[in-house]
Amino acid sequence: MSADAVDPITLGVVWGALQSICVEIGSTVQRTAYSIQAREGQDFSVAVFDAQGRMSAQGPYSPGHMGAMSFAIRNFMDAFPADRLEPGDTLLLNDPQLGSGHFPDFLVTQPCFWKERLVGFGVNLVHHTDVGGSRPGSQAVEGIFDYHQEGLRIPPVKIVEAGRENATALAIIAANSRVPRNVLGDLRSQRASLLVGEQRLRELHERFGAETVAACVDAMLDQTEQRVRARITEMRDGAYEFEDFMDDYGTGTPPLRIHVTVTVAGDRLAIDFDGTDAQTESGLNSYFNYTRSYVYAAVKCLTDPYGPMNAGALRAVEIMAPEGCFLNPRRPAGGGPRAAICSRVFEVILGALAPALPEAVTAANSHFCNATFGAWDPVRRRRFVGYELIHGGIGGRAAKDGCEAMSSPYNAANIPVEAVEANTPVIVERFGFIPDSAGAGKQRGGLGVRRDVRILGESIKFTNLSERHRFAPFGLFGGRPGKLGRTVVNPGTDRERQIGGKASVDLDYGDVVSFQLAGAGGYGDPRERDPEAVRRDLRLGLVTPEGARGDYGLET
User: Fold this and answer.
1) Is 545 exposed, middle or buried (0-12, 13-18, 19+ CB in 10 A)?
2) Residue 408 pLDDT more than 90?
3) Could you tell me which of 400, 407, 402, 398 has the C-alpha nearest to residue 361?
4) Is the overall model pTM greater than 0.85, yes or no?
5) What is the DSSP-derived secondary structure letter of residue 142?
């Protein structure tokens, strides 16, 4: 059956089923995972692929993982062609260049067979708490000169073969983690969820047959491609440039320039990162799969945000980055903390295309903090690894203010205070918005977030991973940048000190770390903001009287 022969009702039912399968796989991960970042922070992703390795549908999770999956599945298929797969196999990889860019991301796939025929793959990816390396959490920036210091690297392997676990492989993985219970628990959660997905895919093929499902996938990919291309043709042809900077790649290091040129030519986009700084001798590099992922995410958000997300959305986009730059490093460059780069990649695409799509873009977001720390718990008499995932504000938009305490540009969540305190020996002493931190604008940015965490551990090895301490989130079309963020140890005491966004430091029992995220950028001239909106922000405590006067000229 050809794609043209599929009737719209069948197409809609099959598409809905594929989306539902992704959500069911993701829900199973969330309900069975051991780690709080997967269970509470939703730091995982899910997709379904056809037998050719084309992404048919994705779940509503991290786009950075999704784009990488499209390339990782091909690496799985190169290592294990169809004639080497059988029902009950489960495959794993975490190689940075083959997967999503760093060791903590375990990418797992389960081939689906129907009537002894390979009809597709379920794939999920979970960020694991710790996979070894020089610092707890496996995401150090400082002190890294290659990825061999960052943890255990796993090429494509079968961790389950014909339904039987590879006990040797699992033992090696567990032996290389500071929290083996979490790692094995999350890994088995990944497999269990994919077994659910495999069952649902078989049921879909039982209902419609392999030919009809394959024709529906062809049609969905073609329709998605057409929607993206149609949107691109509405843009004015030309080359659009933009640049922004990462704060640094460790204490005392210079900023890192990201430069992009987006060329619109008919119904195609060419995105070139020529002019971006060279790869670093640190952990702060982004392997090309990961860089591509957030470019694809930005393009999809700007062109077809409400349409299906599948491999068809990628066809109209060409992405280039010079080999050896920090967005396309050569092996064995470090890449453990590469998540810190994703927002900047996403935002420079928005910045470049703002003149072409002013109604679709947002100003820069707060940037998140993803600090990790390992310590000895004197009460439970064991070592632990703590994990913080903190999100601030989203940039102002053409018709709305930015949002507060939401992740951008991916779909994770602030980990609840109760979950953090229940799973690790910490006390969250403060968690709230930072007044006057948002970039002023006709539509203001979202506020920065402050979270103060007291760590009740001994011999604390703390690894920060934050941004926008030096380069504020930019505003657009006259909107002002957000206020800078910072990280402070023991705020308000005689031991107060500020540390860098990529610092690795030792802390003492009971030290408090105050994560103060930047405010997001504003959109449009602040003088055009509705005074009633300013007064509402005053009533809610989002701006102070001084901020209302200084940013908007409102006398209170």
Assistant:
1) exposed
2) no
3) 398
4) yes
5) T
